[in-house]
Design goal:
There is one protein chain. The protein is an alpha+beta fold. The chain has 4 domains: 323 residues, Na+/H+ antiporter like fold, CATH 1.20.1530; 147 residues, no CATH class; 74 residues, Alpha-Beta Plaits (2-Layer Sandwich); 70 residues, Alpha-Beta Plaits (2-Layer Sandwich). It is built from 31 helices and 8 strands. It has a 4-stranded antiparallel beta sheet. Strands 5-8-6-7 form a 4-stranded antiparallel beta sheet. Strand 2 and strand 3 form a beta hairpin. Helix 21 packs antiparallel against helix 23. The N and C termini lie far apart (82 Å).
């Protein structure tokens, strides 16, 4: 037992100091992360007036587990679908900020005579803002629902995935110890290859397993299963040369797409809090007051660089993406800190032994300073943005507004762009699946069958059979059918379309040839290739059916969380056979807008509506005059038969949509009036409402702004209109 005593004593000390710090900082309404850092400093070897940790090795192990669990939890809150939805605004802001701060951080590091590797890590560390600190500050200041906060959250989502990618690239640079551009390109391709492969495989397999064994799972079993999947992916990531943190994050993001995601996140939270506390406390242990005193100037310089650099670069990025001036300034000032990811990246440098010991405590000190300043930066961002707007020359303000209006007016997506995107989405994932299967076959199937009679033929045949649906889809599956048909009517487009089809077919033939060449000599492989293509063409219909079964299964798993959300029901609440079930009022439902009194749901179906959830608001026991709106989540109480009848009632009142129908995308756009056809006409005469299926909500005439203008107002050249309407129709109006 003696060898366990330091571990137990050290863990007890860490948790005791962490608990005291949490209570104190909760009382002071300060970020808990800062409390953990101070607790670590008190429990570390650099503070003599408090019991100290004796075995740092065991603490480092706990801290590494803490990083893994933290990244797994971050993945559970992350979603690749969210990443797709944040759009170009957040992406442009993020990349502008990260590139600027990486360059600035590297330059400052070199200016302070730091080593090249220290400077590279410093640049990356200073480029990532703190999700934890920002979200907590938003919540405390009550600004989470404001528009700029939505922009900030979008930036944080993109930052999370970029930070993971940069960690992998930093590890590559550190291991190779040189900056070969070709090596970095290969590392990026390798990373993307495994990310896509793991995501596709994970979504196809893991939700299915969780659904199959759901009746057997208790909370305890689900927690153990989730953590086992996390550590399995950690081992897999390490085996192919990536950081354990990447594996944990990927598994978290895969589980985030399952129906059990919220439950798993709830179960993992105590584990995350425990190991997260150990990690942040271990970070605080590295704070050496003597070192910080000796390097007070770098700490102050880097704190100023972080606050100003993050604010200015994010503001510029937001302006570049088309955000108005005030929104851009508020976004930039909110992102002016570093936090948990910076610690993880600094830990990576120490683990790889490529950064000096001084970098870590300086980063912690800078994080502590910027954590304190963040709430004030957010709080004073509004008055500061108004001050800047007033002080800027009117000409500059006008140019920014015009750029914002033109940047937000999304161009009509061309048919060619749609086709190319569809081809890439089809070809890239399928090629990755096929290449991965060929590599696995050569490493595992070939050694098993090589010594048997006709073993190579059996191995090649088995691999081809498994890959045949994917090879068919790569060659012949039609994508962007409507756009391709339109382009085929244009003579000049037929050649490029034929070339795209030929490339797909040749790629399939290449993959078949590559596989056969592994199992056979070149001559036999050639004849086998011809035979395979002939058989492949004969069974197209069956391959078509098989592939669509696989694709449908994948898409069902991918969207299962959203599908089940509206169908989720809760357990019985009373001794009788009634129970509570949740439904969502569809956007296409024709009961939307009607009062409960008019609908007479209780009288007709015997159903009682217990609550209506509308965004962040929940209306308990709604009265008869309460209306139902699209997107409302309603909780109803009834028997199984009554609930089933209510579901049919909702389905019957849902307006059926043609699958080809494209829903209008309603947006608010600024449009500068250049079209002479509208000059001299009133808003009513211009028929802008009919042309855009929208409404003119504002107009600026010679610097004077009018909200909700009358329809009789005459339009003049250079007027700026604010119109709410269909995105495509507004875009067409701009380009007429």
């Amino acid at each position: 037992m003696n060898h366990l005593e330091p571990l137990i004593a050290d863990l007890g000390l860490i948790l005791m100091t962490a608990a005291v710090a949490v209570l104190l900082f909760k009382k002071l309404k300060q970020p808990l992360v800062l409390g953990y850092l101070i607790a670590g400093f008190l429990a570390g070897n650099h503070f003599d007036f408090f019991p100290s940790v004796t075995d740092m090795k065991s603490v480092e192990v706990w801290a590494e587990i803490g990083v893994i669990v933290l990244l797994f939890s971050l993945g559970l809150e992350f979603s690749f679908k969210k990443l797709m939805k944040v759009g170009g605004t957040a992406s442009i802001t993020t990349f502008t900020q990260i590139i600027t701060m990486c360059i600035l951080g590297y330059a400052v590091g070199r200016w302070m005579d730091w080593s090249t590797m220290n400077s590279i890590f410093l640049g990356v560390i200073l480029s990532i803002s703190s999700t934890t600190i920002i979200l907590k500050s938003f919540e405390e200041l009550g600004v989470k629902t404001q528009k700029f906060a939505g922009n900030v959250i979008g930036v944080l989502i993109v930052q999370d995935i970029v930070a993971i990618l940069m960690m992998v690239l930093l590890a590559t640079i550190a291991v190779s110890e040189h900056f070969s551009g070709w090596a970095l390109v290969l590392s990026v391709f390798k990373l993307l290859f495994f990310l896509i492969l793991w995501f596709l495989g994970g979504i196809f397999i893991i939700p299915t397993i969780l659904k199959k064994i759901k009746p057997l799972l208790t909370d305890e079993m689900l927690l153990i299963l989730s953590l086992s999947l996390c550590f399995m992916m950690v081992m897999l990531a390490s085996a192919v040369g990536f950081s354990p943190a990447l594996g944990a994050f990927i598994m978290g993001s895969i589980i985030a797409e399952t129906t059990q995601a919220e439950h798993i996140e709830h179960l993992v939270k105590p584990v995350k809090d425990l190991f997260g506390a150990v990690f942040f406390v271990s970070v605080g242990m590295l704070i050496d007051p003597h070192t910080l005193y000796a390097h007070a100037v770098p700490v102050i310089v880097l704190a100023v660089v972080t606050i100003l650099g993050q604010s200015i670069s994010a503001t510029f990025g937001s302006l570049l993406s088309g955000q108005p001036l005030k929104e851009a300034i508020r976004t930039g000032m909110s992102l002016s800190q570093i936090g948990e990811f910076s610690f993880i990246i600094a830990t990576l440098g120490l683990t790889l032994q490529v950064t000096s010991g001084i970098l870590y405590p300086i980063v912690v000190a800078v994080s502590a300073i910027t954590t304190f300043t963040t709430p004030f930066m957010i709080q004073y961002s509004l008055p500061f943005s108004e001050y800047v707007s007033k002080k800027l020359p009117r000409k500059w303000n006008k140019r920014i507004e015009r750029y914002s209006a033109s940047a937000q007016a999304i161009n009509t997506v061309s048919n060619w762009k749609t086709v190319i995107n569809a081809y890439l989405i089809q070809v890239v994932p399928l090629s990755i699946i096929i290449v991965a299967a060929i590599v696995l076959s050569s490493r595992f199937i070939l050694p098993l069958v090589r010594d048997f009679f006709l073993g190579n033929a059996l191995g090649a045949l088995l691999t081809l059979v498994l890959l045949s649906p994917f090879l068919w889809a790569l060659s012949f599956r039609r994508v962007a059918v409507e756009q391709v048909d339109i382009l085929m009517t244009e003579r000049k487009s037929r050649g490029p379309l034929a070339m795209l089809f030929l490339i797909r077919v040749l790629l399939s033939v290449f993959f078949i040839g590559l596989l056969l060449n592994i199992f056979f000599s070149p001559k036999i492989a050639f004849f086998a290739l011809v035979l395979s293509i002939v058989i492949y063409l004969l069974f197209q219909k069956k391959l078509h059916i098989q592939y669509h079964k696989i694709e449908d299964h994948f898409l069902l798993n991918l969207h299962d969380r959203e599908i089940s959300k509206s169908k989720r029901s809760r357990s019985d609440l009373s001794p009788w056979d009634g129970h509570m079930a949740n439904f969502e009022i569809a956007a296409e439902s024709n009961i939307a807008g009607s009062t409960l009194k008019k609908l007479k749901i209780r009288e007709q179906l015997g159903i009682n509506i217990a609550s209506i959830k509308r965004g962040e608001i929940t209306i308990h026991i709604p009265n008869a005059n309460e209306r139902l709106f699209p997107g409302d989540e309603i909780a109803v109480i009834g028997t199984d038969i009554q609930v089933q009848e209510f579901k049919k009632y909702l389905d019957l009142h849902e307006i059926s949509l043609s699958p080809e129908r494209v829903e209008p995308d309603i947006v608010l756009r600024q449009i500068e009036l250049k079209n002479h056809l509208f000059h001299g006409k009133s808003i009513k005469e211009s028929q802008l409402r009919e042309k855009t299926k929208g409404l003119v909500v504002g107009i600026e005439k010679k610097g004077k702004r009018i909200l909700n203008p009358e329809s009789t107002i005459i339009l003049e050249k250079d007027d700026i209109l604010w119109i709410v309407g269909d995105r495509k129709l507004l875009s067409d109006l701009v380009h007429d």
